[in-house]
Amino acid sequence: MKETPLIDWLLGRSHWAQPDRAGLPLNRQLFDDIRGAILAGQLSAGTRLPPTREVAKGLSIARNTVLYAYERLTEEGYTLTHGGSGTYVGKAPPDPALRERVFGLSQASEIAPPRAESRLSARARELLDGAGASDRQVGSFVLGIPDVRQFPRATWQRLITQVWKTACQEQLGYGTRHGCPPLKHALAQYLALARGVDCSPEQIVVTQGSHQAIDLCARLLADPGDVVWVEDPGYWGARSVFRAAGLKVEAVPVDAQGMQPPVAPQTAPKLIFVTPSHQYPSGVVMSLARRRLLTELAHRYGAWIIEDDYDSEFRYHGAPQPSLQGLDPHRNTIYVGSFSKVLYPGLRLGFLILPPSLVDAFAVAHSELYRGGQLQIQTALALFIADGHYAAHIRRMRKIYGERQALLTQALQSRLDGEIDIVGTDTGLHLTVLLRRADDHRVSRAALAHGIVARPLSSYYADPVRAQNGLVLGYGGVSEEEIGPAVARLAVAIESVGGA
């Protein structure tokens, strides 16, 4: 393609009659067209591009527009400029002879690359097959979402502003102490009083949420192929993290006292993951006897217990059970917590409380794998806790959530009496509803069509033989006014599949 034909070819492009093709400025359109001609082989290496004045005149556009396109072509390696002699096409496309030598193909041959999904690792495919994350994070009855409308934004904004006014260089960096020291100090004090946790501030590693904390445990405390016990039914997110780390996940049944561990397993576990304060999703609170049994078994097998203290802040009936970590005489328990349910999920802050023997290794690994950060937010959170706002917010929300749970329970019993059984009412932000007749997967799909998110309980089981038929309903983000109408729509969904 010679210089004049190039201009003629550009003039023949229909888009030049349209000044705004796909929202792109003319200089970008010109760049794209010349680059496309080079990559398609229509402009071969060594071809001299027409002078910018000729192109500008021929296309009736500003010369600066052409200059921009030429300069970008040169910057990205598609063209070369030889001082005063013009702009020439470089060797951007693969040289045909080189292509034949490297791939053993003729110029006309085409390489058929493998499909993208076939290039995923086996762990990735297993992760995707068992993925449970939802793109619905608002509405009735979405799980794991607190009422962020109740978050004390004015107080939080004041603290954030206060911190930013005095932010030093260290607070704007990655941080080197695996978390903001004032936050770790405030956390240690609060958890000792509220949860019976036995720790010093130095034992805390601040993470980006509980998933990162669990991932760090999986990477540092077990090797691929090692066994990890998880609850069945149990939290799909933890199972996904362990599988992605290459661990062998063994589902251990949950009964009325919590995880029911085998006393003589075929293979001893390296990790034991439990949610003793509010088992997810059954709502069972692990008994004191079962907690003691678990700590003794972990000590016998040389295993680490990962205690996810899920929803422990919101208990409505009876005295709260102390943390498993505080009861473990052998110091084999790692406590995992986060602020997602108490404050707001987008905060993305969690923490690990480690036995002293693990602190140094976890601190170095956390910095190596993830780096620290958000130190100004951590500082504001430290003030939020130390000034009493955190405890006050929990007390206020415990009352609100308790009232919502009572309303939801009453509405379910009134509308679906005889068709359901409700369990897990002592603690947390969700109810588990056992269905006596209707298939939970069919009900879940029908409910979604009515604007209701109701997760099928059976999907939380790794062993389908043990699976119970039911729904898991979150009420944290559902206002009192929404509960009645939402239950009515859920009942219609159940009736539509022949369950009531």
TrEMBL record:
Residues 24-92 form the HTH gntR-type domain. The keyword Transcription applies. Keywords: Aminotransferase, DNA-binding, Pyridoxal phosphate, Transcription, Transcription regulation, Transferase. It is an enzyme of class 2 (transferase). Its EC number is 2.6.1.1. It comes from the Bacteria. Pfam families: Aminotran_1_2, GntR. One of its GO terms (molecular function) is L-aspartate:2-oxoglutarate aminotransferase activity. CDD domains: AAT_like (cd00609), WHTH_GntR (cd07377). In the C-terminal section; belongs to the class-I pyridoxal-phosphate-dependent aminotransferase family. This is Transcriptional regulator, GntR family domain. The lineage of its organism: Bacteria, Pseudomonadati, Pseudomonadota, Betaproteobacteria, Burkholderiales.
